[in-house]
Each structure stands twice: as structure tokens, then as C-alpha cells.
Amino acid sequence: MLAIIGGTGMTQLACLEISHRKIMRTPYGEPSGPLTFGKIGDNKVVFLARHGYGHTIPPHEVNYRANLWALHSLNLSRVIAVASVGGIRADFTPGTAAIPDQIIDYTYGRKYTYYEGIAKPVTHIDFTEPYCQIMRKCLLDAAEWANEKVIDGGVYGTTQGPRLETAAEINRLERDGVDMVGMTGMPEAALAKELGLCYASIAVVANYAAGREASAHVIKLEDAHAVLEKAMVSVRNILERVVGLNGN
Ligand code: HPA
To answer: I need a labelling partner for 133 at 20 to 30 A (CA). Which of 48, 103, 185, 222 fits?
Structure first.
């Protein structure tokens, strides 16, 4: 079974033929909502809306540990995370999708690890490659098969939010080598890695990052939502193909 975590613009998965929903509890509290089980074609999929089904949980308050723990407890190994981002690099224009290959984490005060608390050994996971290369390749192959253009690679900078960035912060991120900026990439990716999950992300550019192009003075979220709605059609096309490739 493949797990899909939906972000802003994807609180439901239209192509999923739903069989049931399940409320899960974990040692880390409750996930963002019940898990939705179903099928895409012949393949079993479980879906979780990262911000809750009513999109009420802001990025810094998402219980990432509970979300990943709940999925991991189903004994699955593969997770695809859909996330919306602001575009920094010139070719990351609104509506573009990318399969990032690196992360820079600018968040703070979140729950970053399962390895804490009484009697837990100090553990440092390797995070050189934050995303699962097998899953990335599956997404890239699925995109090609679906005839959907995606950018292969890119550095995902995760900011704390919930506010958007200043123009100067985006300039700094660009100097750091960040191509796209979002608020949910971390600690989700690191927690997935701690659990040994094969995790990769599809990032969809909702808007130019602050200070750039149409976002020179202000970011209009209504425009970003319209862009996302349209781009999610492509994302669903890719997801429909990737479940087949995974062979579940
Ligand atoms: N900044 C941070 N997160 C985002 C953005 C942005 O411009 N757009 C979508 N998620």
C-alpha cells in the first residue's frame, strides 16, 4: 500500500475510490485527521490531509510525528508528500511541479525526532539524501508516462510560517541555494527517514516567492489557490500512474 499526504490544494484525493476511514491514535498524539483508505485503479492507497480535511491546521502546528507514525504503523513503506511552495529559481513559475532532491531547514521549535525522551538512545540518522531516490525515480517516471512536465530536483527551503517571507528573506534563501520555499517539508522528511520510510515529495509552485515577479509587492493568495487547483489535475495524473508503478 502506498501513502499519500496531501497538502494545501489537496485536502481530498478525487481519484481515490474510498473504502473506509480510520481514526488513529499514536504515542505522539493524533494525526491531522482520520486516515482515508481506498483504491486508485487496482492499487491500495491511504490518504492523509496534512492540514486536516477542513484545512484548519497551520504548518507549525501539524503533528508530523503522529502523521508519519500512523502511516508507518500500517506496515507500508512508501510515502508521497504533496506540498505547495513559492517559486524562487527562475524556472519555478506558478503551476510548475518539481520533485525536490534536497532540503534546507529554517524551521524552529517543532518536534523533529522520535529519538527523545526517557530511555531513548541518542541517535543521529544519516540525512545526506533527504528523499528516497527510488520514490523520486517512480515519481519522475510516472510524470513522464502521464506526459506531465516536472522539474527533476531542486532545493526545498522550509520556513516556519505561518506568515510568508519578506523579500529580503527570499533573497537570503536564494543565496543559500534554495529553489522553492514551503512550510511543511520539515520535519516531515526527517521523521519519515527515522522510520525507514521511502519518502519523496511533489512540490507545486503556487506563487512567485515574496519580492519576485507578480509577488513584487504582495502575494495574492486567491491567485495562488486558483493556480494550485489547476496544477492539482497534473499531480493527480502523476499519482494515478505512480501507484501502478509501485506495484503495491
Ligand atoms: N512561502 C512559503 N510557503 C509557501 C509559499 C511561499 O511563498 N507558497 C506556498 N507555500
So the answer is: 48
